[in-house]
Design goal:
The complex is a heterodimer of chains A (428) and B (183). By secondary structure, chain A is mainly alpha-helical. Chain A is built from 18 helices and 7 strands. Classes of the chains: A mainly alpha (428), B alpha/beta (183).
């Protein structure tokens, strides 16, 4: 008998679930027998060097970005992460014995990073990027453990993650892991140099860049065949950061280094979630590691920078349209008629990476919502940009976006009022 | 060389102005100062931060909002109705001041400002707030927070915030209909 495709899939899924149930039951039993609930409070007697190294690695792995609630104690958890399956709350990873990881051993810690399993045997959701951390060396995991275990314990019990059925069954993650957990994430560029190898580790594993920049499939898994080609988790898209796409938006090694180190570069100033990444993670990286990251992102032999050609005829046409009027009325006061911005204060739109994105959403969202005031490292700051959602109709916003795309981005003026309406509807 | 211009018609303090040929890229503050001789709105930072330059935009739906004239092109106001600081007090037909607005009077009574550079902006913000409360009153217990939220964006380099906020709070509490007793 030949099963139809849906029937065969049902069998596969049932088998996966069965295996998952058995595996988890066995694992939970093993953990119980091993005393993984309760147990002694751990004391990590790590050397000062190990703690220092762990602090650096925890920054490179950007643990604090999620494991810190807005205004909360660092690493004490509580940040809500929206997903299509419900809201997931980051946990407290300070060494509090009851609400933190005070009873976790280095082995337990590595197990969570590597396999996505908590000390009590329950599955983590891949909002915790064990999907990327899986390839972390045991030595690095131990160093991060040494660092977090000497933090001040914070008795902060975060809200409980409650997903919709059936996603609230953590057991299901065993099957998910069987299908989607990968030992080594694919390379996005070509290279062999030590810097490239180190960069691959920093980008794919510690930095877990793919967790935002890689498109996700229907089960929330990273589509590894399209690694780092960009994805929109929310209203703002993490752009394509593969070598060709970076070159097409004007990114050079020096530009990327400046962006990651200072949050500001000629090509763009960090905003939205990437601002947090720079503030908590990349700006703390050594010059060697930043070199490694850019070497990996661009490859050992970087492509020549090739921004999209600006079509003078289209630019002339755009200069007489409604988009230009809105630009002069609402944008030019700060960004300048020529789009050059104000040094150290207002970002330049000319030669900026964002209007060069084929996907217009980041440009539109910035226009509608504005961008909050940002303090960057090295005393650099950007003043707040107001949002214009109440001053631009859908069609006016579309025309303005098209003016910017054609004039500064070399992109098509193909944004429609419906595109703007759709993004407006997603407003927080 | 001549700058490209566009015609602009705008109603300011109840009086229609224009059509005026406005150079491309002229900010509203410059139109007010240089062409219309309305010099009360202050140019402070020039990048939309200090809010000394705001005017009130009266929308057709009856609501009003502050707009920063240093970063808003004059063209934005084409066909719109605005109020500047010159139009807040009551005037007679000859343009003489009959009485200050309650907000202006309260700022004087409470010595709210020192150098006065930011005062036009604070007057506009407080005026917008009081008109909004007349449409949708707030519970008395929320007045302090409401004032703070409404004036927060305005910067006073003499740090006169306490007396500005106090004056606006007093006007709100003394004016019937702006607050309600239960929350």
């Amino acid at each position: 008998m030949t099963l139809h495709r849906p029937g065969r899939w049902a069998l596969v899924i049932a088998a996966v679930i069965l295996i998952a149930v058995i595996a988890t039951a066995a694992f939970a039993l093993q953990n119980l027998l091993a005393g993984k609930i309760g147990g002694p409070v751990q004391v990590a007697n790590a050397s000062a060097d190990a703690v220092t190294r762990g602090k650096y690695l925890a920054a490179a792995a950007d643990c604090a970005a999620c494991h810190t609630a807005p205004g909360g104690a660092p690493f004490a958890g509580g940040l809500p992460m929206q997903s299509g399956f419900g809201t997931i709350y980051a946990t407290n990873i300070t060494p509090d014995p009851d609400v933190g990881i005070g009873r976790w051993s280095a082995e337990d810690f590595w197990h969570a990073l590597h396999s996505g399993v908590r000390r009590d045997g329950r599955q983590l959701y891949p909002a915790m990027p064990y999907t990327s951390y899986r390839d972390m060396t045991r030595a690095d995991s131990d160093a991060i453990y040494a660092y977090v275990m000497q933090l001040r314990p914070m008795k902060v019990a975060g809200p409980k993650t409650e997903l919709r059925f059936p996603f609230n069954l953590r057991l299901g993650m065993v099957g998910w892991n069987l299908l989607f957990l990968s030992d080594k994430l694919p390379a996005v560029s070509t290279g062999r140099s030590p810097a490239w190898q180190r960069g691959r580790y920093l980008v794919n594993v510690l930095g877990h860049c793919g967790e935002c920049h890689t498109p996700r499939g229907i089960a929330g898994e990273m589509k590894l065949s399209q690694s780092l080609t960009g994805f929109a988790l929310g209203r703002v898209a993490a752009p394509d950061i593969t070598p060709a796409a970076l070159a097409a938006r004007g990114w050079t090694a020096a530009g990327l280094r400046a962006f990651l180190m200072r949050g500001t570069a000629q090509q763009s100033w960090a905003f939205a979630d990437m601002r947090t990444v720079v503030a908590l993670s990349t700006r703390n990286m050594t010059a060697e590691d930043l070199d490694a990251v850019t070497t990996y992102l661009l490859g050992d032999d970087p492509l020549p920078v090739r921004p999209p050609a600006i079509d003078p005829a289209q630019v002339r046409a755009a200069a007489t349209g409604a988009g230009r009027l809105s630009y002069v009325a609402l944008c030019a006061g700060c960004h300048g008629l020529d789009g050059n911005g104000v040094p150290n204060t207002v970002v330049a739109i000319r030669n900026n990476s964002t209007p060069r994105l084929a996907d217009p959403r980041n440009l539109i969202v910035a226009m509608l919502d504005g961008v909050g005031r940002n303090n960057f490292p090295h005393s650099e700051s950007m003043e707040a940009m107001p949002g214009f959602s109440d001053k631009l109709s859908d069609s006016e916003a579309a025309e303005l976006a098209n003016y910017l795309r054609v004039t500064f981005g070399g992109q098509k003026g193909d944004v429609t009022a419906a595109d703007v309406r759709a993004l407006r509807a997603l407003s927080p | 060389m001549s700058l490209p211009t566009r015609p602009l018609t705008v109603t300011i303090d109840g009086r229609q102005r224009g059509p005026i040929d406005v150079p491309d890229g002229l900010m509203m503050i410059d139109l007010l100062h240089e062409i219309l001789d309305l010099t009360g709105s202050r140019l402070g930072c020039g990048i939309g931060i200090c809010h000394a330059c705001v005017v009130i935009w009266d929308r057709d739906d009856g609501t009003s909002e502050e707009v920063r004239t240093c970063i808003t092109g004059a063209g934005f106001f084409d066909g719109k109705r605005i109020r500047t600081i010159e139009g807040i007090a009551r005037h007679n037909d000859k343009g003489e001041i009959l009485s200050l607005s309650p907000v202006q009077q309260a700022f004087l009574d409470q010595f709210s400002f020192q150098c006065g550079y930011c005062t036009p902006g604070f007057v506009m913000a407080a005026t917008v707030l009081i008109e909004r409360l007349a449409r949708t009153p707030v519970p008395r217990g929320q007045v302090e927070a409401t004032v703070a939220a409404a004036l927060e964006a305005h910067i006073c380099r003499c740090t006169g915030y306490v007396r500005y906020y106090q004056a606006v709070r007093d006007v709100i509490l003394a004016t019937p209909g702006l607050t309600r007793d239960v929350g």
